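#onboarding

Welcome to the new folks! Below is a worked example of what a typical request in this channel looks like: someone posts a single protein sequence, and someone else replies with the predicted structure as tokens. Don't worry about understanding the tokens yet, we'll cover that in week two.

Example request:
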Amino acid sequence: MDEAAGTVTTTLVGALLLENVGQAFTCTISVAGDELTLRRATASTDGEPITRTLRWKRVG
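Example response:
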């Protein structure tokens, strides 16, 4: 985790596609209230740039 840059890097130890195992991915991370958001710039299967977003919300 790089707090100054607002990023987190993860390395895949398991994946649906064997060639993805061992790859590292860096995402921007933000926290707002009870919500944690990760965003990663990538591309669709046809090469179109997209941003994947994953959100968690604390409950309870």
